[in-house]
Structures are given as C-alpha cells and as structure tokens.
Structure prediction request, 495 residues.
Amino acid sequence: MLLLFILFSCVFLHVRADAAENAYAKTMKIQLKNGETRDVNTVWIDMKDPYIRVEGALAKNKVGEIDTFENIYNGFKNEDTEVIAAINGPFYNAYIVNSRFDSNIQIKGKFVFTQNKVRPSIGFTADNRIKTDVFFPTVSGSLNDLSGLWTVWGINKIYYHNKASKESNILYTPEFGNSIDAGEKTAVIVRNNKVVAIQNGVSPIYNDGFTLVFYDETYSSLFKIGDKVDYDITYNKVVTREGDFTGESLEEAIQSLPWGNNEETDWSDVRTTIGAGPILLKNGEKQKLNIIDLIDRDQRSFIGETEDRFLVMGTVDDVTLDELADILKNMGLMNAINLDGGATSALMFDGKVITSPESDLCSALVITRKKEKTIRIQLNGKEMFFDTDPYFYNQRTMVPLRGILEAVGATVEWDPSTGTIMALKGDIKVEMWNDSKIIRVNGKEQEMDVPVQVRYNRTHVPVRFITEVFGAEVNFNPENNMVTIIIENYCPTDI
Prediction:
C-alpha cells in the first residue's frame, strides 16, 4: 500500500447549517508511504437530494473561451438556483488562447464537444445517478428521414481547412460561435433541421441550427437547399479482454484493438458529461494505469462517488495518479476519475475558493440546488433535455416551446410583425402569443389553463396542452416528477 493511513481528525472548511447532512467541505491530512503528508481538499454532495443538479459549464457559454473560475461559478446564480460547489472540467491547454478540449463535454443533454478518440468520461443522469465509462461518441446523420447517410469526426473541433484530413468533417453548434471559416471546403448550413445554404468560406452558425463542414465531397454533394437534416450520437464502449494490454498506455492499447472490439453503451439518459481520465476506481477496484501514472507527481483534481451515493470531488497536490487512486479507495469511493490538474486544478464550495487555479478556465462542473425538484420529461421512453429546465406554474408543467414542439415533429416559426408563434405539423397549425392563454388551432380559438410565458429568455408552454394538440398522450407521475409523452408514428429528432 502506498497509503499508510488517513488521519481521522478531518478539518471541516465550512458546513452550512441548513445543509450539513447533504453538502459539506472538509480537508483531510493523509500520510504517504514515504512519510510525507498531503492535504486532500474535498466537497461531499448527497446525490439522493432531489433538488441537486450537476451542471456542465463552458466559459462565457462558448467552446474554447476562458473565464475566471469565480465567474463560471457565479454564472449559475439566479432567484431559483443556489450554487453549492464547483470543480474544474476536462483537459485543455491553459496557455493557448481559444484552445479546444481534448475530452467529451455534454451540457443539458447536448454534446458541445466530441472527437473521434477514446476517452474516459463521467456522466450524471437526470435522476442524479453517476456513470463512468470509456467510450467514443460517433455522429451519424440523416437526410430526408434516411438515416446513416453522412458522418462527421467530431463536434466543435478545430477545423484545419488547409489540411487534407477526414478529421475536417466537423459539426458546429452555436456553442462554437456564430461562424466558422470553411476555407475552400463545403459548409452545409442548417436551421430548424433544414438546409438553408451551401457555401465556402466564412459561414454562419445559427442559434436554431448547426453547420456542417466537409472535407469529403462524397458527403457534401449529398445535400441541397431545403433538405431535412438531423443527427444522432452512438456511444461506443470499448470492450477490453484478458490479453488486450501489453504494457502500453490505455489509449494506445485501445486504439490497437481489432475493429469491432466495442459495443454500444447506454448514455441516452445522461444529462451532463465531463471527459477526462484515467478512470481510477471502478466498482471499488483500482484500474490499470500506465507507468507514467505511477511515477509522475502533480496537482490533481478528481471526482467520484461512494456506495451511499455521495458525490465526492476534490484536489490534492504533488501525488501520482496511483497514489491518488489509493487515497480515494481508502476514502470509501467506489468509482472515481481523474480530471484536468496542474495549473487548472480548482475547487469551490459555498462561494469560497478552496483551491485556486493558476489560470482562467475553459469549463467547470458546477453543483447547484434548485428550489424545485427535478422535473423529468420522457418522449416515447427517451429522456428529453432542454436548454432551460422545466418548472411548475399553477400546477402545470412548463417546458421550452421550441424544444418540445420540435421534439414531437412540429416546425416552429415566428412572425415578428404580429408577435405570433406558429407551430406546424402535417395538417395541424397552432398559433399562440406570449402572455396569452388563447391559442388558435387551425383557426379555432382555444384557451389554456396558463399563458405562454417567457422565462430566462425562452418561451415556455404547458407541456400537456401543447403536445395533446398534436396527438400525444401525456401522463404525470408525482412520485418521481416524471412527465411521459407517448406519440404514435413518431420520428425522433435530436434535442
């Protein structure tokens, strides 16, 4: 054992009187095999608390931007949200302006960065369950409802338009910015799941769409103006077996595996993902590490969980990853993963900086407590996520209008001259207005129980009323705050 013992006289940094049982910070002194001691700064969060949310955060809400750790933390504060804690996110180069990540990032169910590389990740479901896995996401696109016709090699990756590489086939979302320079390559610009332009050079990325940049003209030649376009993500779990490893690094070993030595893993219910690695503990057992992890000392950040569903995140200076794994196992963690460390190692609790990074950050993982329990939405058995959280208003569940309508297959348009919001699906046309209970369905007025309303710069509607208009069956289970929507002849869309 590299760890002789953990001193049980822990120093509590701060404990809030109203949450001492389910959210607290503490520092523990540990002694290593060589007799040296280390301070392990930790934050403990009870994930059984239904008011807890785990949020992925981008600096200034953009991939590759940087901001202070405190600004990222405070950006989640509002009248409905208390910010409890935060830790730095996945790997990136802190010394390169607009550096891109090297790991998966998923925010509110939407992947804002992926690349075609195997990466360990930790994920958090809508009901606060924690997953750790080694997988790589692949993007598969549909064209006019025909699936699997195109693919890309990542989401929001750096695009090298002067480099002949298939990795230049990239999907860009608004989290990248408002434009991308495609150079001489072809950009396919999509709004509301329809192609609106095909061009070269500087190309827009619309808030209600995405832009595809193709090096491979085999793909770009498939598209024309007006085509319906969508995409889905498959999570490819790498399956390792006895004899797969021969002493090389985890990534080298995985990349050398025969094609087909993987299988899909279910990540569809995950709301937040932070990629990093390596995985240190899995089901209470230390994972295989390469030789560098055994000897290289550095400032470390980590996150994991105990058997009784406490989320534990923290920092410790000047340890190897092997020593860190021993520390976390002795702390009682069952699953744990290493995060970016060194100059970007950062930890906050209750508004106080515990570990201060030496640089600004690209991202963070933020723990919040909402005034309301999490409201979950499932459509035909698939978890749905929105850019703003559903909420109760006068005993009605309110959801973002565009997200829910596009999910059930409707298109959404807005007439700024009249303030009219129009939703179209087949022969059904719905017209509605902000702050009004009155809607028109195929020209006939109906009245909802609550008005259409704007909250956090998003238009919200009562989920039951608006989806039943389009033929859905809606049920609500108060025990788990779950809204289930069933719609026949449903063609899924990515939200």
Notes: Confidence is low (pLDDT under 50) at residues 1-20, 241-248, 256-260, 491-495.
